[in-house]
Structures are given as C-alpha cells and as structure tokens.
Amino acid sequence: MSPKVSDEYKTMMREKILEASITLFSRKGYHETSMDDIVEESGFSKGAIYGYFDSKEALFIELQKKFATLNYLELKAVIDKEKTALAKLERTADLVFASMCEVSEEMCLMDLEFQVASSRSPKMRKQHRFQQMAVMKLLEDTIKEGIESGEFRKEVDANSLAAILISAIGGLSNLMVTAGIKFKWDKIKEALVSTVRSGITV
Amino acid sequence: MSPKVSDEYKTMMREKILEASITLFSRKGYHETSMDDIVEESGFSKGAIYGYFDSKEALFIELQKKFATLNYLELKAVIDKEKTALAKLERTADLVFASMCEVSEEMCLMDLEFQVASSRSPKMRKQHRFQQMAVMKLLEDTIKEGIESGEFRKEVDANSLAAILISAIGGLSNLMVTAGIKFKWDKIKEALVSTVRSGITV
Amino acid sequence: MSPKVSDEYKTMMREKILEASITLFSRKGYHETSMDDIVEESGFSKGAIYGYFDSKEALFIELQKKFATLNYLELKAVIDKEKTALAKLERTADLVFASMCEVSEEMCLMDLEFQVASSRSPKMRKQHRFQQMAVMKLLEDTIKEGIESGEFRKEVDANSLAAILISAIGGLSNLMVTAGIKFKWDKIKEALVSTVRSGITV
Amino acid sequence: MSPKVSDEYKTMMREKILEASITLFSRKGYHETSMDDIVEESGFSKGAIYGYFDSKEALFIELQKKFATLNYLELKAVIDKEKTALAKLERTADLVFASMCEVSEEMCLMDLEFQVASSRSPKMRKQHRFQQMAVMKLLEDTIKEGIESGEFRKEVDANSLAAILISAIGGLSNLMVTAGIKFKWDKIKEALVSTVRSGITV
DNA sequence: GATGAATGAGTTTTCATTCAT
DNA sequence: TATGAATGAAAACTCATTCAT
Lengths: 202, 202, 202, 202
Prior knowledge:
Four copies of one chain form a homotetramer. Chain A is mainly α.
C-alpha cells in the first residue's frame, strides 16, 4: 500500500552505493570517477543516487567517515584486549601490517584519496584531523600507560612517538601504492617493533 | 643557427613555466589547476606552453622529476659531508625537519599531489619508485656503513629501517597538510632521533 | 458510494493544493517552483497531487482559471452596484488600486506569471484571452452606457478606451513588480480618473 | 601570425550570438531556450559562446541592456525633434504604435521575458528600473514643458501621467501577445491620443 | 614559432513524472 | 487511493587540446 520503506532498507541502499563507490574511487581516484561510473557500477539510477547523497563530494565524505570509524574501532578493540603496553603496541603492529598485507591495495588507495581531499577541503580536513587525532590519542595513552607502569623509559615523549608511529605506518602504506614497492612486511614489522622496543623499553 | 643558444633559451622558458606551475599545483592541486591558470600565472600563451610540454600531465611529470632530483641531491650532499653513520642520519633528520618546518606547506602539498598521481599513472609510478628507491638506498647504505663500522648493532635490518625512516618522514609531512596538525617539530625530531639511536646503536 | 461526498472532498483537496501553489508560484515563479516544493508546502504526497492534477502545467492552468474568475466576479459586483457610468468607472478604479495597494505584490507577480505562460501556451492563451475579453466587455459596456445616457461624448470609442484602461492598469501592476517602483497610488489613481473624466465626459 | 582578433571582430561575434538568442528567447522564452538551442541557432560551439558570455543569464542581461538602450535612444530622438509638448507626445505615440504594429510580436515577447526576469532577479530588476525610469523621465519632462509653456493645464500631475502612459503602452503590448488580441492600432492610438489631449490640454 | 579563439566531449546536478507496493 | 523511491532525459557549464593565422 505504500512504497515507504524501512530505515534498514534505506541503509542497505546507501551501503550498496558506498560499496560501488569504494571500488571505483580506489581504482580510478576521486576525480577520475564520474557519477556515471557510479551509476553503472552500482546499478542505481542517477536520481536514486542523488536521493541518497546530496552530491558526489557528500558521498565521498560519507565514505571517509565510514572508513575511519571502522579502522578506529578495530584498533581500539585490539588495544583494549591486551594487558601490557608493549603487547598493545605489538598487537597494533600485527593488525596494521596484516591489513596492509592482506586487504591488498584497495584500502591504501582509498586512504590516499582521502588524504588529498583533506588537504584541499576544509570540511574533509576537519574530519580527517579528528580521526587521526583519535587514533593518535589511542597510541599516546598506551605509551603513557607503559611509562607509568615502568615498562617504558620515563624520558620517552609519548605524544611525539605516537605521531611518529602513526606517520610511519601511513607512510609505508602510501609508499606501497605510490611507488609500487613490494615490501617484505614481516621484516618491516620486525624492524619497526624491535627498534621501538629497544628504543623505549627500560 | 646555434643550437646551444636555442637550447638554453628553451630550458629557461620551460623552467619559467614549471615555476609557475608549482605554485598553482601546490596551492590548488592537480585537477583544480587548469591550463588557463598556468597561462595566467606564467604569462605564456597556451600555444607556447603546448610548444614546451606535450600535455598537462607531461608538464606535471616533468615537475616531479625536477623536484625529486633536487631533494635527492640535497640529501646526498648532507650525507656525504659527514663521517660517522650516526652523524649522517642526524644531519638527514636536521635537513628534513628544517625543510618541513621552514618551506612551509607548499612542498608537502606538492608531494602529496605527486603521490596520488603516482598511484594512478604507471608512468609516474615508475618515476616515483625510482626516486624513492634512490633515497632509500642512500639511507640503507648509511645504516650498513654504521653496522660495518661497529656503530650500529649487527642485527639491524638496514633495508627495513631505511623504509621505515623514509615512511615516517613522508607520513609526518602528509599528516601536517592533511590533518592540519601543527607539530612541534623539535620534539618530534628529538623523539625520532633518540628512539632510533637507542634502538640501533651498540 | 455517494459521489457527492467524494466530489466535495475532491474539490476541497484540489483547493488546498491550489492554495499552496499560489504562494510558491508567486514567490518563486513557475519554473523555479518544483513539484517537490508543492509537496512540501501543501503537505500532500507526490502521488496525491498527480491524482488531482495531470501535470504541473495543468495545475497552473487551473490556478489561472480560478484567479481570473474571482477577479471578474469582484469587478462585476462593483460595477453592478453603481448607477451612473462615471461612478461605475470610478468604483472600478477604487477596487483595482486598492487591491494593488493592499494585497501587495503577490497577486501582481502571479499575474505576470500567467501572462508569460499565456504568451507561450496556446491553451493558456485561449483562456487568458477569454478572461481579458470578458473584463474588457464589462468596461466597454459601461462606457457605451455612459454614451447612451449622455454622460460621455458621442465620439468616444468605447472599445478602444476599454482596452487602454485595462492595459494601463495591468501595466502599472507589472511596472510595480518588475521595476520595483513604489508608486503613490492615490496620486496615480487621481491622475487617471481625472484625465479620463475630463477626456470623455461631456 | 596571430589569431588575436580585432575588437570589431569580437563585437561582431557577440552580436551574432545575441541575434540568435533574441530569436529563440522571444520564440520559446528564457527557460525553454537551452544553451544547446543557442549553439544550434547561432552556429557557434558551446565553448565559444561561453567565451563571449559568462552564463546564460549574463547573455540575457546583455540582451536586455541592448534592447532598452535602443528603445530609449529612438524615443529620445523623436522627442527632441519636435517643438511643442503635444507634438512630442503625439510623435511618441506614432513611434510606439508603429513598432508594435510592424515589428510584429518578437519585440513584445522579448519584453515580456525581460519583465518576468526582472521580477525575479534583483540584478535585472535594477537594470529594468533604471531603464523604465529613464523613459518615464523623458515623458514627464515633456509634460512639464507643456505645462510651463501653457499647452497643458496646471493641475496636471506630470509624474503620474507619465507613469500611466508608459503603463498603458506596456500593457497593450503585453495584452497583444498574451491574449492574442488583434488590436486595431489606429483606433487605439486615436483613442489614447484624443483622450489624453482633451484630458490635459487647456 | 607564437597566439588565443574555437572546439565538443564530458561533468555534475535537477526534476517532472511514473509505478510497485 | 495514497505513497515516495526510482527514473533518466536534459540542463548549464568546464577545460584540455587544436589549429588557422
């Protein structure tokens, strides 16, 4: 009697469009992906897509939000599960390197797109900043915990180290997809972990 | 008649166009910069620019090449000047952080543009890869030197560490311009240097 | 089962939709008003509106009909109430200027929309023509009455004068809303009435 | 040696585009005329048209300006040629009715388009107001002249009468194209002139 | 070689109308 | 009969590139 659909239905449709967009944005990049591409890939009509998202940019921003939230939650879960600070950091490394290694390049490419977009649009920068800060805080707090518990040296600068760690990981991800370097992730992880470990533990 | 004069002239003209393009690409990004913008900023005519460069993309690639070459040479000069491996790494850190700190964001934004472009175009990726590899080799060799000279521990993985260092620095640069974070560069540098130092020195 | 109830109900619904549309068409114009605007303003669903009107244009035509009929009846009532031809014309002036002055610009803007639409669509032109002719006839007959009763000069061309009067009034209305001129309606009316009076009375 | 073209050339091209646009705007109306229509009618490419005009609206505004300027100058020339105020008004009537009669409906339709546009866009309203005011002033001054010279009665309200005259003429033009009424222009003119004459002359 | 007017495919977005429910 | 999600043609506008002069 009514085409009024449930909220779940709507969410599902949005999800489908976002799904199709990820594929395209990561494969071709934001600018090279046209709404027509999304129409074709998603199977929706133009009007339908604009019914769910105000604009191409809005769709992209939504995507970033979704992405970052997932990453954050995943990381938080891992950190919360461990007891010692060192273990938390090591599990974090495991998680991050596993995702770079397995999930292939799609995610890293998406991430790069988000970065450029954030460097140009104040709106996206604000969001990106918020997300990066949240992740950094997670690491920073973990390091501080380690200092307080006596695991790490007192003179360690938690804030700076967190920034460095997050940057190193982001940088490796970028390097992989921009330079096409096939890293030996095991060795890289081992090097990072051992350097940091001997660099900060008592 | 004299090809030399003609070539010098050509090079000068090309240089002027590249100069104008840097400003625009870093300020607005590759896609948002139009050839008309470059015409206006450079003072050249459209035809002239197309006389010097085959396409917008070719101009951009040329720019990347110029950029990377300069960076490489600058870094090499610094490294060659020092004696000990540790000093080489420390001077490298000085150079890199000074440029991020002083030259402000223009260069970092340019770099980000190069990264995305490299992730999309095989031609640019090849070039980017070559450049990154060259810089990585510089660091790797320095670390190996340190190991051989007894400065660094034998078990240090030179190759991986070089990749991590270059990634950390690239990542910090990106984070600054994408998240708008105002890092305290002094503290970051200190943290990076001291962590690495105590992480790898004997 | 009972068609009468159904019809009344239908008419009421149509009336509500028309009401909402007037507001929008006069405020934003025909082209700038979307069916979605009407949906929002009227509170009806899209399907409902299309159930009552075949198309946006049909709705608009209906509106014009309603509008013109009201105007005609109002004018006729005024004219019928008076005895002498001069008084009829003067009361007409009173009515017309009062409405321009009070009802403000909404009606004038609507009228302008009807005019353009009439200039483009044969269907609307036919309707507009019929309505304008009816009003003109009212004035023409009044003038003829005046001539026959000896109030007005014999050589007065009733038909032409009616056209002029109706045009002057329409023109003033248009000028107000298109040029944003704030007329001193009292003085304008006085000038019109006195010029016509001394121009046609014996 | 250079495709740099003269200013005359540019003006000529603009003129051609404007010419094609008049035809379309008057035939189909502003909204119903697409840039593709103008491309086809003018023979120019889309890019070329946008090279000469910033937008569809800008093109339309330019057209209005051109139109109004011509009308004003034509009217001014006629008025300046005559000596007595009455003759000036009569020649004005001649000019106006001749143009409505001869130039057919194209101009009147254009005018109607300008009116609606002016009722919606502040920019166009400003321009329209300025033009209408200029014409009104011409009439007002003429009437004032007549009063001072003793041709017209002292109690005539020059300002109001000018507004009425300009409205009557505009209204007749509109009525012709919106109601499709075939006026007998000779008789209308005669009626207007004689009514005004006996209504204001001493 | 130099110029910049011209090209036109391609972009994002809108909106009257339909129709499955 | 009512609903509003879906449609898709059409709109305004952009811009890398070409080429007549």
